[in-house]
Amino acid sequence: MNTILFCQNAYAFGILAPIRDVLQKENHEYIWFIAPKLLDTFPFKKENFTTSILDLQLFESDAIFAPGNEVPYYLRGVKVQIFHGLAGEKKGHFRIRHYFDLYLTQGPYFTEKFNRFKAQHQDFDVVETGWPKLDIYHTAVQEYQKEKEALLKDYQTDKIILYAPTFSPSLTSAPYLLDQIRELALSTGYLLLLKFHDLMDQKWIAAYKKLSEEIPNILFKEDKNITESLLLADLMISDTSSVIYEFLLLDKPVITFKNISKNIQWLDIKSYEGLVGKVKATLEHDTYAPQRKTLNEQYHPYKDGKSAARMVQTTQEYIAKNGVPNERKLSFLRKKKIHKIFGTPTKDIFTGPKKNKISALVITYNEEEHINGVLENLQFADEIIVVDSFSTDTTIEKLKAFNNIHLIQRPFKDFTDQKAYALAQATHNWVLFIDADERLTDALKNEVLKTVNSDQKKAAAYYFLRIFMFEKQRIRFTGTQSDKNYRLFQKSKVKFDTTKTVHETLLVDGESKVLKNKLIHYSYNNFEEFKNKRLKYTSMQANELLAKNKKPTAFHFIVKPAFRFFKHYVIGLGFLDGKKGLVLSYLMGLGIYNRYSELKRLRKENQP
């Protein structure tokens, strides 16, 4: 069974990992789909994974397990909703969005409600299997018990308390419990674990991190999987986080603040006060143990650690009975929403055979922000070569998490020299050479594969048109409309012009063409970054002009900068990009002025 493990948020890793384990054990093929925002936190980079919907189309899955609310309707496979939590009272938990063929529920409370919807809509099945994330709670208890004993000894205490609030701005207790958590740590000596959701307001994450730095028995947990913290803690403090139910199912007490559930089976405090006394009283006398037993029976009665196995088996049985659907029928508006989230399906997909292999090349220096994204983006190539100029950030550490990258570290002289060296390392004639901050769309990847493997006459080199992204927003004008660069070419028919050291120039022996689909250029995150990079180029360009014995004049300081601004802002329609267009045009002109200012300084410095 070909299976997609579909992750839109980081919490999906811990939910889907037990299913992955079953798939491995039973020799099924699988691929992780990771939303691009999750690349830095994805813990299984040695496994088969992608951020590309095109890769999922090519994978031709039989089943898609999704602990989220959406899944592309146009992907082949049974679309299986396995839920991302146990908080049935939260808005949207029982909403039918029509994206799923099969709902695998956690326990009787959920099964009964979804069976009502099944009778109403009659276009999906419901089967109760238990929830895979809880499997580990019944298989790794002893392992975590040893860790717990070590922690209690190290901190000379007898209890571990977990604070895990929700991130929802209207429901979170984080802004109100900072002083209460401080008092709890100082007055009891208990070890406090703080575990916040990825989407929590950064202001509160920073405040609680600072608290953990000030007080030794407060630990801020930054790992993405909360399982360890749940198993270590004796009591949980929260508000309306769905993780409350996971903790209750371990038969341990919970204290919440202003919980919105209509069926509260634990201690809930209606004001943000009295935490220390309530914690001590609950640990001394747990009055909600009987209610937890009933909750366990309704929410998750499965204690065998085999929920993931039941999910895989149930899905196989569903396929045996109903077959594998090629897509899910949706209304126009539902399709439009999916297209907005995941893009439209790639048409006329290249499926091989590959007649020509591709070498993908990247040069890097301190690209920790982009390295995961660009390496994942190039996985369709037959080899990936990275020439790094001895990065001092985490670029190399992140790069080594991939298992198919050829890394070469080499001192940086100039861009042309470094790129010429990288080109010489390519073992295949077809070369895809992109910058670390560039990404191929699915449509462009498909076009590259079709172009390289076509039986028709091929050009020596191909330009890629680029979409210019600034502060994560697209710049549509300001002279970027026709921005293009050589990115795909035949190694045997090109070489770099060694007289150009900054904006390297490719000399092409043969015909050049332009590909239809565009490359995305994530150029700069802010104006300061843009300005600093332009200054870096300015210095290199000034040295290039110095070598040619160029002499700056008033023309270079006044006319050229003014014309560059005019070219981008007026001719390039930068005014249509609003404030961003104005500032970018200004910085383009400033770059020209700074280039000749630097040249003037260098000439003066080199005078005898």
Number of helices: 19
Tell me the fraction of residues in β-strands, as a range. Answer: 15-25%
Oligomer: single chain
CATH class of the largest domain, please? Alpha Beta
CATH topology of the largest domain: Rossmann fold
Mean pLDDT across all amino acids: 92
The chain-level structural class is alpha/beta
Radius of gyration using CA atoms only = 29 Å
Family: Belongs to the glycosyltransferase 2 family. WaaE/KdtX subfamily.
GO molecular function: CDP-glycerol glycerophosphotransferase activity
Domain Glycosyltransferase 2-like: 359-496
Organism: Cellulophaga baltica
What does this structure look like?
- By secondary structure, the chain is an alpha/beta fold.
- The chain has four domains: 3-131 and 305-342, Rossmann fold; 135-299, 3-Layer(aba) Sandwich (Rossmann fold), CATH 3.40.50.12580; 358-524, Spore Coat Polysaccharide Biosynthesis Protein SpsA, Chain A (Alpha-Beta Complex); 527-606, no CATH class.
- It is 38% helix and 18% strand.
- The protein contains 19 helices and 25 strands.
- Strands 14, 15, 16, 17, 18, 19, 20, 21, 24 and 25 form a ten-stranded mixed β-sheet that branches.
- One of its GO terms (molecular function) is CDP-glycerol glycerophosphotransferase activity.
- This is CDP-glycerol glycerophosphotransferase, TagB/SpsB family.
- InterPro entries: Glycerophosphate_synth, Glyco_trans_2-like, Nucleotide-diphossugar_trans, TagF_C.
- It comes from Cellulophaga baltica.
